[in-house]
Specification:
The chain is mainly alpha-helical. The protein has helices at residues 15-31, 67-77, 81-95, 103-112, 118-123, 128-139, and strands spanning 41-47, 50-55. This is DUF3775 domain-containing protein.
Amino acid sequence: MQPRRERSWELSIGPDTVRLFIEKANAISAAVNEDYVDGGEHEVELDGDTRDNHHHDGLAEEKSENLLTRELRALINDLNVDEASELVALMWIGRGDYDASEWADALNEARQRDNRHTAKYLLGMPMLGDWLEEGLQAIGA
C-alpha cells in the first residue's frame, strides 16, 4: 500500500471565505419553501377551480431578493477572476463533475467561463452550500 500523498492547494480564495459563502448559501436554501421540489412544476390553486403552474428554479427564484441573497451576490461579484474561478471549480468538485485530482482541469474550465455571471450561476444552485463544503473537503482545505 502506498502512503497517501498530501496535496497542498494554493487557493487565491481563502477557505474561511468559502465557509462564509457556505453559511450564507445554506441559510438561503433553508429559507426556500420545502414544499417545492427543485426544478419541478407545481400546481397552485388560485381561486376555486382556477389553477396555475409554478416552476421552482433553485436559489435564484425570488424576484425580490432577500437581504441575505443580495449580500451573497455582492460578495461573489466582489471576487477577482481567480477567486471566482476557484469558487466555481470547488462547486464542480463538490457536485461530482470533477474529482479532486482533476483540480487543474476544473479550474481551467472555470477560468474559461464568463465571470460576470458567476453569482447568477452559483445562486441558481439549490445545493450550493453543500457542494462548496464537499469541494473544500475533497481538496483537504
